Amino acid sequence: MTPSELPSQRTGPWLVSPRLVLRRFQPGDAAALAAYRSDPAIARYQAWETPLTVERAAETIARYRHDAPDRPGWFPYAISLDGALIGDLGVNLHENGMQADLGFTLAAPHHGRGYATEAVGRMLEHLFVDRCLHRVSAECDPRNDASARLLDRLGFEREGLRRANTRVRDEWADDLLFGLLAADYHRRAGR
């Protein structure tokens, strides 16, 4: 962990895994966020608009400072490697405080190295062990094989398919639905 990633009131919350830090977004992350969110290969299965300018990325990060991980709604975590932003992981805490949805994005140069699996795995540990959630859900476009395989590897069950459910640019895309219960997570972890 670099000194800029050490915990503080200004940068919290944060979670550490063997190679990564999941932390609050910082103003210096704008260029990296704009770069990977503008990559057509990364944006292919995402509903956000592209390209994302550095200025709009900075505005987005400024809005994130009002978000809190313990309140219902989405909280965006920056995925950081050696102090550099390489992706993001969002957690949407439900009103009941016992369920959440998650989504993740990783910049293309960092694919295939296990970083997304490590980040999502660390978040699941936090949600099920530290926060004692009952259930975590996720969804992805069925054509996004890498994301579906990652969720399978981490123990999520495929629970269904919503056909032509999400508008992505000029087409309607299917949503492959996944769920993981706390009991299943703890059983897999040997707890």
List the helices and strands and how they pair.
Elements: E1 14-16, E2 21-23, H1 30-38, H2 40-43, H3 54-64, E3 73-81, E4 84-93, E5 99-106, H4 115-130, E6 135-140, H5 145-153, E7 157-168, E8 171-181, H6 182-189
Parallel strand pairs: 5-6
Antiparallel strand pairs: 1-2, 2-3, 3-4, 4-5, 6-8, 7-8
Helix pairs in contact: 1-3
Radius of gyration: 16 Å
Helix/strand-derived category reads alpha+beta
Distance N to C terminus: 28 Å
**If helices are DSSP runs of H or I spanning 4 or more residues, what is the number of helices?**
6
Query: Main sheet, how many strands, which sense, barrel?
Result: 8 strands, mixed
User: Can you write the helix and strand succession as a string?
Assistant: EEHHHEEEHEHEEH
Order of strands across the biggest sheet? Answer: 1-2-3-4-5-6-8-7
What is the residue-mean pLDDT, rounded to a whole number? 92
The counted number of beta strands is 8
CATH architecture: 3-Layer(aba) Sandwich
Please estimate the helix content: 25-40%
CATH-defined topology: Aminopeptidase
Low-confidence stretches: 1-11
How would the global form be characterised? globular
Strand content: 25-35%
CATH superfamily: Gcn5-related N-acetyltransferase (GNAT)
Number of domains: 1
CATH class: Alpha Beta
Organism: Actinoalloteichus caeruleus DSM 43889
Protein name: Aminoglycoside 6'-N-acetyltransferase
Domain N-acetyltransferase: 20-183
InterPro entries: Acyl_CoA_acyltransferase, GNAT_dom, N-acetyltransferase
